[in-house]
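Quick start: what a row looks like.
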Amino acid sequence: MSFEDLDLRHLRALIAVAEETSFIGAAYELGISQAAVSQQIKGLETAIGVRVFDRPGGPRPVTLTPAGRALLDHARTVMDLLDSAEQELSDLASGTGGRLTIGTYQSVSVQLLPDVVSRFLAEAPNVAVGLTEHARNEDLVDELLAGQLDVTFLAGPYESDDLDLTTLGTDPFVLLLQADGELAHAHPGRRFPTLELNDVLMVGEPDPQYGAASMTAGLRALGVRPRYAFRSYDNGAQQGMVRAGVGPAIMPLLATDPSDPGIVVKTLDPPLEPRTIMLATPRGATRAPATDAFIQIAKRECRERLALARP
């Protein structure tokens, strides 16, 4: 017995003869000659070493042997799996199916990502979208290069020889103040003098995540010594602390909720170097059409969202 000698033609013939109960009917169903069906069943029986059909002859139908009945269930399972694989590969090739796993960081998730994913799923509703969030670029890049992500957002500027990078736009840093606080009353205009933040207790992140473009590095470059009363990676927690009067916060514009009546959003003067929003895929890797579609949608949505969000 050698199952290595089986091929799909044997299994298709087995299923067809079992369903049609005749070699003639199976030949018609498969679109081949009766002799070809007989040859395939003979090859099947030779490979497994037992008969799969009892052939009474004449007009009486052929019937499965116990071995034939056992093999038929497995043959149908194999063919169903192949049909499923064919459909999945077809969907993957067309970008309408499969799975897309996206890496992101929290501030992108507040305003930009929901709109991008919503628009993407409107165009490809059968794609299963998964999201992974990290606070640091390095963690996202590690998972991307390990094959755990198909595409990831990164906070830039960022460079790597291992990545194909797409710049979506620049997200300016803005100042959040308590709406009825002293600083908001002292500076009622849209602009806030950045140097006025020197030695002010602020709300911020635990550490600068984005190199030279980070908020802390930017403040120091302008001669401001930042001090922090509260630190968190959570954008909602930072804005909540501003609302409660713990201190002002400098955040990327897309990380804020400007509709919050408890805060006001102001432009810094002079401004900090804006954060760059980027998408990354592994350099040289074959991308699924769904990944390319997601990148194109992200470009359009980011451009529109940033234009609407300017303070």
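That is the whole record. The domain at 3-94 is CATH 1.10.10.10 (Arc Repressor Mutant, subunit A). Confidence is low (pLDDT under 50) at residues 209-213.
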